[in-house]
Amino acid sequence: MQENHGIITKTMEEVMHESMIPYSECVILDRALPRVEDGLKPVQRRILFDMMELGLTPDKPYKKCARVVGDCLGKYHPHGDTSVYQALVRLAQPFNMGATLIDGQGNFGDVDGNGAAAMRYTECRLTPLAVEMMKGMGSPQDEIVPWNSNFDDQLKEPALLPGRFPNLLVNGSSGIAIGFATNIPTHNLAETIDAAIKYIDNPKISLSELMKTIKGPDFPTGGYIIAGDGLKQAYETGKGKITIRAKVHIEPGEYEKTNVVIDELPYQVNRAQLLETISKLREEKKGVLLGISDITDESDRHGTRCVIKIKKDCNYKPILDMLFKSTQMAVSYGINMVAIADGKPQTLGLIGILDYYVRYQREYVVKRTKCELDAAKKREHILEGLVIAVNNIDAVVNVIKNSKSTAEARDNLRRKFNLSERQAEAILDLRLARLTHLEVYKLEQELKELRERIQRLTAILGSKKLQMEVVKDEMTEIKKAFKSPRKSTIISSVEDYKVSSEMQQEKAEDCVVMYSVENRLKRMAQKNFGRATKRFGDSSDRSEICSCIAEVKGGDLLYVFDSEGYCHKIDPETLPEGRWRDGGTALKSAIPAAGPDAKIVYMKGIGENMPQGRLLFYTRSGMVKKNDWSEMDVAKSSFQAVKLKDGDSVIGIEEEKPGSTLLIVTRDGICLNADMSDIPTQGRIAAGVRSIQLSEGDECIAAMQVTDEGEVVLISDKSNAKRVPVGQIEPMARYRKGSKIFDLKPSSGKRLIFASYVTVPYTIILDVDDEYLSQFDTEDIVIQNRTTSGKALVRGCLGLEKVYIYKTQAD
Fold first, then answer.
1. Alpha carbon distance 552, 735 (integer Å)
2. Count of CB atoms within 10 A of residue 727's CB?
3. Helix, strand, coil percentages for the chain (3-state, nearest 5)
4. Nearest of 95, 97, 92 to residue 51 by alpha carbon
5. DSSP one-letter code for 35
6. Residue 58 contacts by C-beta under 8 Å, 6 or more apart in sequence?
7. Greater confidence, 334 or 252?
8. How many domains does the chain have?
9. Is the pTM of this model over 0.70?
């Protein structure tokens, strides 16, 4: 030092080793990361322990937070008072904690980002759950939990609390250390305890089985958790990502407007900032958000209620989709489950956390049982001496009376009755009131119960199974006392997200949903539908040509089956109400889950109970599948209804009609009237059975249930058309090659493009060269036998691609 004039010179390697590494270790182990056993950081543990020492239990009055902060700072946590108070405040905030450990009185902040009042104004005490967490901790001499000296070696503080429930999962944790960070979500107390018990019963349990009990995080602010594959990955590896969406519902507003009401926010989203962001986006004229007329915050102490008012005649659905995309109404939550385990930071999966926790609980039970057993044996020893004394009270009194001093009396008692020094002391301390008959009986009963307790404690110490039973019983008691319902709803994908609607209860009315040949959906009130569907006029407007029409009662859902084999459940109220000639909403906008090339094949309105009967699915490759309607009772909003091979598509769906046969018509003019008795009833994901043997390059254009009554209307690509009586087509077994039903040749057409069953006359519309539409009545089409080529409906037609049925009523 003298030679260098007071300057100390060190290399960077030495500085890093002597300063940075110890500092990093201190931050990691003693500040930022929780322990896996009790789920607490050091400051949280010290606050709770200090409050217990101050006697701030739930049955005692509140005390100023400043008193707690000062006491904790002076005894155990020599850091800034702000850091201690902030940790205390978080433990009392119900919107941050899965289960609060501190009962706060006063202003402890809110979800709008407003901070807590100063510590001199707020008051606190422990919650009953926090008391349970520290129950049975004992003193430093008992060594039930590990103890450390405080910063000045004057006091002892617990290195761990008993943690009688899995607090790391229940309350989660977040923090940033040097080189490490943790972000553990909160979970439901009852589910977490059930999962721990399940792990105790079967330590080799699979993660999938465990996730049937602990379904996922449960955030105190509720919302929808879109788990996807990220949740299972997080539980398996300790790292993963989930999405949280706000919970909203739709209700009617003033002047026939619609209100989107936010009921629950994603975890740790600032409510005031969210509404400010929505307001700014609207002012910047961001597309569909121009449909928002006003935003109000009607939240109170009972919960969140943020109202987004939608302008009249605007559809709320695209606005809601944009809000989820552009604001914190939907946020990504990165799970990173890092905690201190075995004295070092570790990234743990769900099973790893439960394993450490269960092992710690067993060790705690063993140490506590040993302590209780030692105390019980000491008490038994004293009681044995007292029982000897009361049973020989006259001799005891004589010995004491004849002794010159207390020490001599103690020695005389020990020699006469063969007692230990502690027993003799207890006899000398015995009050005369204990010599009554009742008190003697109580001593004998206490000794009897104590020996039974010693026997049970000894059995627990000698059996791992009994130790685990104790852990399970104590956690079950906590679960019963503090069980609360789940707040967050877990869904597997965005398609399962549902928006509840009060519109249904208040003004939902019967409606008709139509699917036009332009691949658009539209909705009309049932009372207006009958007046609107007039006979199709000469026009190039295809918006009123509907291939599917479904009547839906108020409050029911619409089941939509598409050509790609999927079923989608939609609320008709999400479709804007219009007129018969309106264009409607594009299918992709109305049903985002539908494929880009999907077409609607069948629609039906369904209430709370599924319809009776069965559905028949027909595909282009000649497959037919039958399944019960009950198979469609699936919780998802979009799901697979039939399994299709690559390149195949659904061309028709019907409800089964008893006493019918199945008529299949192919592009090459072949038909088969098949018996349906051997078509089996299959499950939802089945592919079905073959209905017809197709020639190479041929495909089905139509399949329908028929009876002997009625005719089949057939039209070729050159507009040649005819009707063939069904009675001329002999029924035969399924999966045959069939017979000719249309004579295709250069003059009549290269292929069939339309086939339909008719019992009551209806209108068909020919889309001629995509230039103009021409309509015909089925009664105007000639009746011919199977081997003819029909009669041209449009002279000089070179290429007819599409033929429509003009429908004016539900399928």
1. 37
2. 13
3. 35, 25, 40
4. 92
5. B
6. 103, 125, 126, 127, 128, 131
7. 334
8. 4
9. no
Catalytic residue among 121, 235, 316, 356: 121
Q: What is the 3-state secondary structure (H, E, C) of 517-570?
A: CCCEEEEEEHHHHHHHCCCCCCCCCCCCCEEEEEEECCCCEEEEEECCCEEEEE
Pick from 552, 547, 704, 551: nearest CA to 617: 704
Strand order across the 614-619 sheet: 650-655, 614-619, 623-628, 689-690
- Sequence-distant (6+) residues with CB within 8 A of 441 are none
- Same-domain pairing of 662 and 808: yes
**Catalytic status, residue 806:** no
Query: Where is the domain boundary, 482, 502, 521?
Result: 482
540-545 contacts at long range (C-beta below 8 A, 24 or more positions apart): 540/771, 540/772, 540/773, 541/581, 542/516, 542/517, 542/518, 542/767, 542/773, 543/516, 543/518, 543/581, 543/582, 543/583, 543/584, 544/516, 544/580, 544/581, 545/516, 545/517, 545/765, 545/804, 545/806
CA distance 113 to 105: 18
What type of residue is 602? Y
Q: How far is CA 358 from CA 164, 234, 469, 598, 627, in A?
A: 10, 20, 11, 52, 47
**Would you state the pLDDT for residue 419?**
86
Please give the pLDDT value at position 446. 86
Same domain, residue pair 692 and 810: yes
Q: Is the pLDDT of residue 740 over 90?
A: yes
Round to whole Å and give the CA distance between 258 and 310: 5
- Rounded CA separation 245/267 (Å): 9
Residue 521 belongs to a domain: no
- Per-residue pLDDT tens over the stretch 170-216: 999 998 888 889 999 999 999 999 999 999 999 999 999 999 999 99
Q: How many CA atoms lie within 13 A of 35 on its CB side?
A: 20
Q: Is 185 a member of any domain?
A: no
Q: What's the domain range around 672?
A: 658-811
Mean pLDDT across 503-526: 80
Q: Which of 465, 482, 499 is the last residue of a domain?
A: 482
User: Are 416 and 319 in a shared domain?
Assistant: no
